[in-house]
Amino acid sequence: MKFVFLLTCCLFFRAAISLSNSQQYEAIFNFGDSLSDTGNFLLSGALAFPVIAKLPYGETFFRHATGRCSDGRLVVDFIAEAFGLPHLPPYLALSKGQNFKHGANFAVAGATALDPDFFYQQQVGHTLWTNDSLSVQLGWFKKLKPSLCKTKQECNDYFKKSLFVLGEIGGNDYNYAYFVGGTRKQLKASVPLVVEAIIRAASALIEEGAVELLVPGNLPIGCSAVYLTLFQSPNKASYDQRNGCLKAYNGFSKYHNEQLKRGLETLRVKYPHARIIYADYYGAAMRFYHAPHQHGFYSGTLTACCGGGGPYNFNNSARCGHTGSVACKNPSSFANWDGIHLTEAAYAHIAKGLIYGPSTSPPLLITNISIGPSN
């Protein structure tokens, strides 16, 4: 009995240490693109009639469209819930009297890490959804900061209890060019510029007082329905046999992610007081591409739930929300939502890997509470 008691006490003590090492954030500040936008694109008025402003977008959890590019919650929503925080309000709701005490979301669908001028110089500026790039989002944060804290000490105390999520960002920098005919060789040359913009933004946030940063890499774009549709190949060798994804495009994502991880290492040396966590979106997603049924994706991972037909249910002339498209009856059985973005169910699996491991090291939260898609 004595041995059992000591063992129990020891296990409890170790669990208590683990919990104490896990930061209990009181606010979250998020930057990025459509993978984490909770309404800024809609509020920006960039498009007169964006499809994300109406059902079936938002149908699963919110039961109405919120400006999220999914059927329900996003990774950042699950992170907020794990820490008992409200879903992040979009920064552009500031004029509506929104309270940002527990954080704010600066992400905008279509946003890029590089400024718009770069894309206009490359003759692809006309394809941009928005001009609210990462530097614009940083400007919004700096504008909001005086309303969050007044003195340097007050800001330091506040930001020590805050999580800064920088991304995913950079995917659109490649998408815009790829979708108008850019080659992988051309795009590979832009990776250092994209990564540099992300590292520069992370550095700026640390200078503003951030000490806890989560920086996600890119998803495996070769498994995305839009890439599988636009760049389909008659050559079977172009696809990995296990998952059916385009090997070369997944290789590109991995190249970006390796460059990003190297950049983060330089930041850790420069700012040893900051905790800079790389979030492995690629690895988290590949787990359900490898084993769809084990993750509840009985309808598959490569075919979109909502679309207008085609081998992967992605049709550029009848995209989700447009005339001719149809949404599936059970989005939770699909990983892909609209050909470009994932379902709430897929984001839930990615979020779980970030919050509890192994997609972040150390994980954001040690204790294991329930997290998953809506029923």
Overview of this protein structure:
By secondary structure, the chain is of the alpha/beta class. It has a domain of 242 residues: Rossmann fold, CATH 3.40.50. 39% of the residues lie in helices and 7% in strands. It has 12 helices and 7 strands. The strands form 2 sheets. A 5-stranded parallel sheet has the order 2-1-3-4-5. The chain has a two-stranded antiparallel ribbon with strand order 6-7. The longest helix is centred in the middle third of the chain and has 24 residues. The radius of gyration is 21 Å and the shape is globular. The protein starts with a helix and ends in a 19-residue tail after the last helix. The N terminus is likely disordered.
Give structural attributes.
375 residues, alpha/beta, Rossmann fold, five-stranded parallel sheet, two-stranded antiparallel ribbon, 7 strands, globular, SGNH_plant_lipase-like
What is the residue-averaged pLDDT?
A: 91
> What's the helical proportion of residues?
25-40%
- Shape, principal axes of CA atoms: globular
Strand content: 5-15%
Report the CATH C-level class of the domain at 26-220 and 247-281 and 345-356: Alpha Beta
Classify the fold: give the CATH topology of the domain at 26-220 and 247-281 and 345-356.
Rossmann fold
User: Whole-number radius of gyration?
Assistant: 21 Å
Architecture (CATH level 2) name of the domain at 26-220 and 247-281 and 345-356: 3-Layer(aba) Sandwich
Largest sheet: 5 strands, parallel
Widest sheet, order of strands: 2-1-3-4-5
Gap between N and C termini: 44 Å
Structural class: alpha/beta
Number of helices: 12
Uncertain ranges: 1-21
Order of helices and strands: HEHHEHHHEHHEHHEHEEH
Tell me the number of strands: 7
Family: Belongs to the 'GDSL' lipolytic enzyme family.
GO molecular function: hydrolase activity, acting on ester bonds
InterPro entries: GDSL, SGNH_hydro_sf, SGNH_plant_lipase-like
Keywords: Glycoprotein, Hydrolase, Signal
